[in-house]
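JOB MANIFEST
job_type = single_chain_structure
chain_count = 1
residues = 255
[input]
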Amino acid sequence: MRILPTSALHQEGGIVPSILTGAVVLVTGANGGLGTEFVQQCLSRGAAKVYATARTPRHRPDPRIVALSLDVTDEESVAEAAAIAGDTTVLINNAGVLRFGDSLLSDSMADIRSTFETNFFGPLLVTRAFAPVLRANGGGALIDVHSIFSWLALMGSYSAAKAALWSATNSFRQDLAGQGTQVVGLHLGVTATPMTVGYQAPMNRASDVVRIALDGLEAGELEVITDDRTAAVKQGLCGSIGDLYPRFARPGQSS
């Protein structure tokens, strides 16, 4: 995986047109920290319209932003959004939930199912509903927001759901290739947003994460990794369990 700056996107005879120029973008979870950045940065890169979706969408004064009610866990709500936003060319599956202290062994099954409903089944529902929309509009692109915890199982059902979404994104990429849809998996470390308030760790800035994500989208990347920590964790998948989880390292094994 490598990221090219937008200014480096050239082809013979000139600059490659940006996929965001004149695009119609739909962002799920648009009220949050990353969602707000996706809305604003897509517009700054030339998007013609952005559907800013949430269960309770926030009105914004910019006429290019369309507030749209969408509950990603509700199949009827998703179908209604797809019918309204039939001009979408770029879909960003950003909505997510996070509970600190998440545990697969001690949390209630209701809480675990709730996490999966938003973080896995939600993007699955939205992608299934909007795949025909993207096809009808020329293919376009899809970004799925993953996490360092897709690869590092330290967050219980959150990690499990994000790992499932990572696998699903790889399947989406195969399934949507024939209609010309660029499918991007975005992997990021802990990022300063309202969702991570109280989490004690070095954090990325939401603006940087989204800038890198959109640079990757415009460069034609299929996977974008936003920070060194996340890149190191992915690299660790090629090693032993002890490489990712030092408590399981055997004596003499590097970690």
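[summary]
The domain at 17-228 is CATH 3.40.50.720 (Rossmann fold).
The chain has seven helices and eleven strands.
exit_status = 0
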